[in-house]
Amino acid sequence: GQQLxxxxxSMFIQEGEDVSMNCTxxxxxxTWLWYKQDPGEGPVLLIALYKAGELTSNGRLTAQFGITxxxxxLNISASIPSDVGIYFCAGQLSGTYKYIFGTGTRLKVLA
Amino acid sequence: xxxxxxxxxxxxxxxxxxxxxxxxxxxxxxxxxWYRQTLGQGPEFLTYFQNEAQLEKSRLLSDRFSAExxxxxxxxxxxxxxxxxxxxxYLCASSLALVGDTQYFGPGTRLTVL
Lengths: 111, 114
Hints:
heterodimer; A: 56% strand; B: 114 residues; mainly beta; globular
């Protein structure tokens, strides 16, 4: 199935550090969503982006909708141990209702 | 406001058996999506309903798979003659198409085909 390029694939960071991850594609998207998923559970919505260039924050999380509508990034500031998990981006293809998910970024935080 | 619920949470079946999963979306959400997720991958789109109408289906949805959403409320996903390759997490999401199309996921149904 189709998946978006998401990087990095995984990362180990020290508690308190900032984290950045991004998703890129050759396709144009109407909406970008960022999710966190714990093992055995469904994805939990973190941030939703609806307009090109939009920058939105949710606590320590900040995400941006790329100006070309083909990419998005997520930043986590001052990471804490409970940030551990898998983060997914999801883009809604222009002209469809379909969402394409990224390959995921596995985050591990060292206390 | 309760979230998206899915039942059962886990299903173990033998190859060749039929299985059915249920999804109850957030009340008043008119859009409902089904996804499949295998280990180490992101969710992959299977199908989408707006109210009771099934508007889009992925090529991943073979003729052994069928989804319904009678009356535009809950939805069922049935897999006939299960194969070992059907083992995966099946996720349901719902959204309200007003501003944007923000999807909220249920906890998923983990299917294991022996």
